[in-house]
Amino acid sequence: MKVLFVCLGNICRSPTAHAVFRSKVRDAGLQEVILVDSAGTGSWHIGSPPDDRSIQVAKNHGYDMNNIYARQICAKDFKEFDYILAMDEENYNNIQLVKRYNESVLLLYFLHFSSVTERLDVPDPYYNKADDFSEVLNLIEGAADGLLDHLKIQIAGAK
Ligand code: 4NP
Fold first, then answer.
1. Is 22 a catalytic residue?
2. Is this structure's pTM higher than 0.90?
């Protein structure tokens, strides 16, 4: 099972989802079964570590962002991953534009998996204050729990 989180720059939201979800996957002992990665639709930050503000907020909540470096989503991702999870509508639309009809990867809003909010967009915090980074983390944690529950059911069904 392969899951790719996608935002615009791959330095704030999707690496946060990457760090939070891989931690929950490890805690569940499923790291051999669920592969987690992240990417951006944009190319500005390729090769960069996550934004310092994201690293700090993640650390405050007990998540490390080690070994996460920005990359851009590419054609291979549509063949390799089972789920591509967009952080907001702009990301969703941009990914949808390049997805081929015969690629079976599921493109969904990440917050679709949250049972604690009705919203679908994780707001872009890049030009905003520290508070927004905390809100990003809270939204992501809620959806990560729902996603893990969903994948556990898929994994059990595939056995
Ligand atoms: P992200 O945030 O998509 O959550 O990584 C952004 C990071 C960088 C930029 C925009 C959004 N930027 O314009 O460089």
1. no
2. yes
